[in-house]
Write a structure and sequence with these properties.
254 residues; alpha+beta; Endonuclease, Chain A; 9 helices; 8 strands; 19% strand
Amino acid sequence: MQHFVYLENQYFWIHTYIGIDIPFLGKDNPEMERNLRELAAALQHGATVGIVLPDHPDPGRGHADDALKRLREEAPDAVKERRLVVFSLGTSTHKEDGEHYRPIYVHAKVAIVDDLWSTAGSANLNNRGLRDDTEMNVATLDAELAYSLRLLLWSEHLGLLKDDDLLLLLRHLANQRQDPPEDAQARELWHYLQETLADPLAGLRMMYDRAEDNLRRYKARQPLVGHLLPYLTAEDAAQEGLPCHEERGWIEQA
């Protein structure tokens, strides 16, 4: 890895999860420790790392919070320079009594490195998921595929395209037959995404800004734009004046 690493995964747990959430019973997970060391080394050498995690992971917040704390401690300069950015996903709905929010659970297992290598599938980010369990991932060394996957994911998280436009674009990229006007519109949409998100570092900065703006919107009870919110550890949430529950996280569930 030279420039950036992007991860979407429900699994970012430094402690071994034994099926019940008793943090002091779980020893540190050796393969996750190695993952954290590799990510920290990339950050220390100037790379940028973006991670999307669920606000309410299955084993509770402590496992992911501790992993993120470890990574921040090993790469403090990257935190200051915003080269380590971590997000959760949420959505908002307007009702008679105002805006309501709920988290979107991140169950994806996606990784993109330097717009060259990518993987997607069902395996969690550990040896059990990648080696022992019955799972399936596809890993490719294909720059066009990695680039396209990144632009599509980020455009959805940022809310850059409407659902109907995204469907047009997906059909176009898959070489599916469409009416000429629809295909022309899809080409314009793809050109727009390339102009907006071609630079991955600029794209991650845009995602950071959108997440921070959505946090302000959340506090002001305004609708979210796209789905990005910052991943707040329990300590982060307390500093923001937000309640954080071990099981449910900080994003309101309504």
